[in-house]
Amino acid sequence: MEALYQKQILELAQQSRLSKFNNTAPFQATFYNPTCGDKVEVSFTIKNASIQKIGIKVSGCALCEAGAGLLLKIVDGVSPEKARQTRTTFSDWITNQIAVPPNDEMQKFLPVRTIRNRHKCVLLAFDAMCKALD
Q: Per-residue DSSP letters for 15-78?
């Protein structure tokens, strides 16, 4: 079972590696995890009231990259309000505040729920996105 989750997490990590950060995008932010040194840069546009053309640059661990891959997969095309809510529900689930994963993509991070010191790694891209929206 753990091998399945590891494979899925690594696939999400690969997606973030293929993404291209756009340094001319109107919405940009960088977020750091000072504990481990991970850094995520996020860029995107908002068109027709939805987040589009997300670009990500990650300097960090595979879980940080996978969290960024998750962001790419589930936030593209949603409203800023929905994107913020997605971050909140993902955080609530990964930190064991709610029992049921908000969606199937988040379910891939099930093994991380028990590793408290890795939660911030997984959420870093979502935090960068929220910072860019601010």
A: HHHH----TT-SEEEEEEETTTTEEEEEEEEEETTEEEEEEEEEES-HHHHHHHHHHHHHHTTS
Strand order through the sheet with 38-47: 27-33, 38-47, 50-59
Residue 37 to residues 27, 34, 58, 134, Cα–Cα distance (Å): 23, 5, 11, 23
Query: In the chain, what percentage of residues exceed pLDDT 70?
Result: 96
- Nearest partner of 80 among 125, 42, 134, judged by Cα: 134
- Entry pTM: 0.94
Q: What are phi and psi of 59, to 5 degrees?
A: -120, 95
